[in-house]
Design the sequence.
C-alpha cells in the first residue's frame, strides 16, 4: 500500500518536472521576441538558480535525514539480535533452571522477527503479543534462585541485557523513521516545476533538450523516491531494513 503511494508521488513529481520543461518550451514559442532577450534570460536564469539552490539544499538535507533514520533503525535491529544471542548464552551458562527463560526468549525472538519483518502484511507496531512474551521472559529471570556468587552474577547480567532488549523494543516503536509532511513535499515539487519551466523557456525545442529534461527529472524523482523509502525503513518496502540479524539470532539460540 505504502509502496504504491510512494510510486504515485514519484510519478506525480516526474510528470510535474518534465511537464514543466515542456510547458517552458511551448511558452517560449508563444511569447513575443522582446520577452526572450538576453537580459530577460539572465534575470530568469538568476531567479531559477535561487530556487534551484534552495531546492537542492532541501533535497540534500531530507536525504541525509532519511538515511540517518535508516541507519539508526538498522543499528537497533542489529543490537537487538546481538543482545538476544548474548542473553541466551548467559541463560545457558546459568544451567537447567534457566531453560524456561530460554524458551520464553526463543518465543519472543521468533514473534519479534515476524512482527518487524512479516512475509505479507505490514508490521504491527502496537502488538501486545511480543510485549507479553518479553514480560514472561523477565519474570522467568527474576524467579531464578541465586545459590552462589556465580549464579548471582549471571542473573544480574541477564537482567541487564533484558533491560536493553526492552529499550530497543521501545526505540523501534518511538523511532519509526522520518515522515515527510505532504504539504512540504508538494511545495518542493512545485519549486522543481518552476525550475524546469525556466529551463524550457530559453532552451531550443529539439530532441536533445527534451531528452535532457526528462533524464534530469528522472534523476530528481529518484532522489525523492530514496527519501520516501529510506525515511520509512520498518515498513515492507523496497529498501526495508534487513531482518538477517534476527534470523541469525534465532538460528543461534535454537541450538540445544
Sequence:
Amino acid at each position: 500500500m505504502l509502496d504504491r503511494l510512494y510510486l504515485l508521488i514519484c510519478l506525480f513529481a516526474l510528470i510535474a518536472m518534465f511537464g514543466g520543461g515542456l510547458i517552458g518550451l511551448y511558452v517560449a514559442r508563444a511569447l513575443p521576441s522582446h520577452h526572450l532577450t538576453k537580459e530577460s534570460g539572465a534575470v530568469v536564469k538568476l531567479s531559477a538558480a535561487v530556487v534551484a539552490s534552495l531546492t537542492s539544499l532541501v533535497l540534500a538535507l531530507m536525504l541525509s535525514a532519511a538515511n540517518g533514520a535508516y541507519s539508526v533503525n538498522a543499528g537497533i535491529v542489529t543490537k537487538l539480535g546481538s543482545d538476544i544471542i548474548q542473553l541466551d548464552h548467559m541463560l545457558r551458562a546459568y544451567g537447567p533452571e534457566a531453560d524456561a527463560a530460554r524458551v520464553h526468549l526463543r518465543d519472543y525472538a521468533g514473534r519479534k522477527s515476524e512482527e518487524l519483518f512479516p512475509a505479507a502484511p505490514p508490521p504491527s507496531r502496537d502488538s501486545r503479543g511480543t510485549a507479553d512474551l518479553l514480560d514472561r521472559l523477565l519474570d522467568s529471570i527474576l524467579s531464578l534462585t541465586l545459590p552462589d556468587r556465580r549464579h548471582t552474577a549471571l542473573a544480574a547480567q541477564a537482567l541487564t541485557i533484558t533491560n536493553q532488549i526492552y529499550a530497543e523494543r521501545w526505540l523501534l516503536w518511538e523511532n519509526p523513521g522520518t515522515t515527510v509532511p505532504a504539504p512540504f513535499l508538494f511545495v518542493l515539487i512545485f519549486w522543481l516545476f518552476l525550475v524546469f519551466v525556466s529551463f524550457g523557456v530559453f532552451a531550443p525545442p529539439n530532441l536533445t533538450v527534451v531528452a535532457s529534461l526528462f533524464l534530469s527529472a528522472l534523476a530528481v524523482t529518484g532522489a525523492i523516491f530514496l527519501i520516501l523509502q529510506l525515511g520509512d525503513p520498518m515498513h515492507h518496502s523496497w529498501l526495508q531494513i534487513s531482518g538477517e540479524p534476527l534470523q541469525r539470532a534465532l538460528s543461534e539460540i535454537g541450538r540445544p
